[in-house]
Amino acid sequence: DESAKKVEEEVGRVVEQARELQESGASLISRISNEEQSLRQKANSLESSIRRLRSLINSLLSQKLLDPKLADKLEEDLLRARFIITDGDAAAFLPAKAQGRFLRMFLGPINVRASRKDVQLKVKEEYNSYRDRTAFLFLLFPLTLLILRSWIWEGCLPAFPVQLYQAWLLFLYTGLALRENILQANGSDIRPWWIYHHYCAMVMALVSLTWEIKGQPNCAQKQRGVELFLQWAMMQGVAMLLQNRYQRQRLYTRIALGKANRMDVVWGETAGVDGQLWVLCPILFLLQGFEAYVGLLLLKTAFVGVVSEWQVIFCGILLVLMAVGNFMNTVQTLMAKSRF
Amino acid sequence: DESAKKVEEEVGRVVEQARELQESGASLISRISNEEQSLRQKANSLESSIRRLRSLINSLLSQKLLDPKLADKLEEDLLRARFIITDGDAAAFLPAKAQGRFLRMFLGPINVRASRKDVQLKVKEEYNSYRDRTAFLFLLFPLTLLILRSWIWEGCLPAFPVQLYQAWLLFLYTGLALRENILQANGSDIRPWWIYHHYCAMVMALVSLTWEIKGQPNCAQKQRGVELFLQWAMMQGVAMLLQNRYQRQRLYTRIALGKANRMDVVWGETAGVDGQLWVLCPILFLLQGFEAYVGLLLLKTAFVGVVSEWQVIFCGILLVLMAVGNFMNTVQTLMAKSRF
Ligand SMILES: CC(C)(COP(=O)(O)OP(=O)(O)OC[C@H]1O[C@@H](n2cnc3c(N)ncnc32)[C@H](O)[C@@H]1OP(=O)(O)O)[C@@H](O)C(=O)NCCC(=O)NCCS
Ligand SMILES: CC(C)(COP(=O)(O)OP(=O)(O)OC[C@H]1O[C@@H](n2cnc3c(N)ncnc32)[C@H](O)[C@@H]1OP(=O)(O)O)[C@@H](O)C(=O)NCCC(=O)NCCS
């Protein structure tokens, strides 16, 4: 009876403590949302001040009431202030720029922005290592298929392993597109095109799944389209591996320079990797040329009439468009960088 | 010159304010992480107390040192305390149960848990309305295909619209699976099976995409498998519509009773919808029977030799497994509910 009493007391205490925990949690949440509110107000008023000052500077400049050099300096100060608002530690508490349709479609209205910089960096690092792992498979998988084709399968790919590969591609590109959208929501400056590029690749993988893989007789000719598709995929693997090496280096430079604080880095960041970029880009251009070439070959096989399914034409056009887009965006990136 | 000075001053002030904003943000983040730390410690020690007390109660009971009635009451108190820890307002700040592999595969290490209850509810409501929208299409899309087949296409489905539909299914099920994983991370009690069920449906949609849709001659026979697949999909639409009506009602009851505070609801929640469940379940059982029947028919067409692709056999087996799983889990849900 003694011990029963004691247990009862202890249970009462535990329940009490649980209730206290519940209250601390609730109060923390309400305090956070109050502070968020106040940060948001400050940020809004700052943003409108910045807008006002910029137009003021412009009008003073045009009336020649302001020294152009001073104006430049002030502009840069304002840019920096803006940057602090949109990318600093307070940014996590400001209303997010609406997350893209893609994320909303797949995930619903959940917030994917991390409030802490170290978490954001972790997400980015994990993205890089995800790409490393997949780039490797990207090379290995189609290579194996092509080797087996000539060694064992006597020039005729069986449908199942190819479809397995295509399903894997679809899954992979969906993952990449989702992750890149998440990075964007976390403040990455990734150009929208690189994300669209992955949407296109998703569509391509999907279409290729419906693409019938014909067997004997006359296999080599009928499977020309699939063969080209596999070659393109391998080439993607090479591009990814190169890009990964470069971008990982870039991230390390960034972390080393700016310690999780991007604002300090942007103005001096290319320093460490500039040289690499000029080696990488010619290779990328070559690969992009090959991408367009594969697209054109696909179109040719379709129009010469060897393989006349719509999937071949569709993939051909898509590949050419992707190559053009990749080229234009790589050039624009280079131009933007050389301006600094 | 006067105005230049003024602008310069103002810009200086704005930069200063931006820096202050940055500091408030940083300090808010560090305060949050400190408080998180302390909540986590408290929660951990509470959890171990609860574990200790439960085993103490059990041992006292077996030594007959405790009145069984009192023991029951204490057990329930402890359960409630546990519930507060795992589901209360503090839960958002505790280390999440590791998010499932599926989410990690697609999204990387991003946290999808919302800390505020109202956001969690919004996510849930959006999930329900997403299901409503799709359930409607679920019925309409295959129905249109089947109607067009007999009216216009003379008993022979063209490949493209069917594949479009299958691609849509794949996309849809992926979205549902992701959203349900997110709900689970936000504390939903969804049974794992319903999520696995959507993984199976994803696999099925993927496999059906590789499934060649043969044309004339002898279309009706060759397309028997596809026809059955479409019928199954329609049936899924009916099941979803019914389930949605019930579950929406349930959420409203919950919100009305407990105001975003789940703990108060769990012990009395079924009250409002108990009746509905007993109407819903026979229909669900009927549909599950039909699901198994479609699966068996698929297997029959495969083994009789009309359509002998592996896809048919695979989908047949999968459908039967899904039907069995659905049945078992529905029964278990009913049993769990009737015990309260
Ligand atoms: C040209 C290239 C090397 C420039 O890379 P970069 O120096 O990182 O470019 P930016 O400075 O504009 O990058 C801005 C942001 O976008 C990201 N990014 C750039 N290109 C990206 C790509 N292709 N995929 C994903 N993210 C990319 C960067 O990581 C950076 O992110 P951060 O702001 O979070 O740090 C890169 O865009 C690239 O490799 N493009 C070619 C890809 C291609 O053509 N592939 C197919 C070949 S067939
Ligand atoms: C049987 C059934 C009606 C019970 O629903 P319920 O009363 O909500 O069940 P529970 O109380 O166990 O629900 C616990 C949680 O799981 C969710 N849930 C239950 N079944 C679900 C399902 N099939 N899909 C998604 N979520 C489900 C509930 O919304 C609830 O979420 P919450 O904790 O966030 O509020 C429901 O599970 C169901 O409709 N199952 C049959 C589905 C089926 O067989 N479909 C295919 C037919 S061929």
Task: Describe this entry's structure for a reader.
- Two copies of one chain form a homodimer.
- The first copy, chain A, is built from eleven helices and no strands.
- Chain A has 340 residues and is mostly helical.
- Chain A folds into two domains: 2-95; 106-339, no CATH class.
- In chain A, α1 (2-62) packs antiparallel against α2 (68-87) and α4 packs antiparallel against α5 (159-185).
- The first copy, chain A, is flat.
- The termini of chain A are far apart.
- The model of chain A is unreliable at 259-271 (pLDDT under 50).
- At the A-B interface, α1, α2, α3, α4 and α5 of A face α1, α2, α3, α4 and α5 of B.
- The complex binds coenzyme A (2 copies).
- One coenzyme A is lined by residues 180, 183, 188-191, 194, 236, 239, 243, 246-247, 250, 280, 284, 287-288, 291, 326, 330, 333 of chain A.
- One coenzyme A binds at residues 180, 183, 188-191, 194, 236, 239, 243, 246-247, 250, 280, 284, 287-288, 291, 326, 330, 333 of chain A.
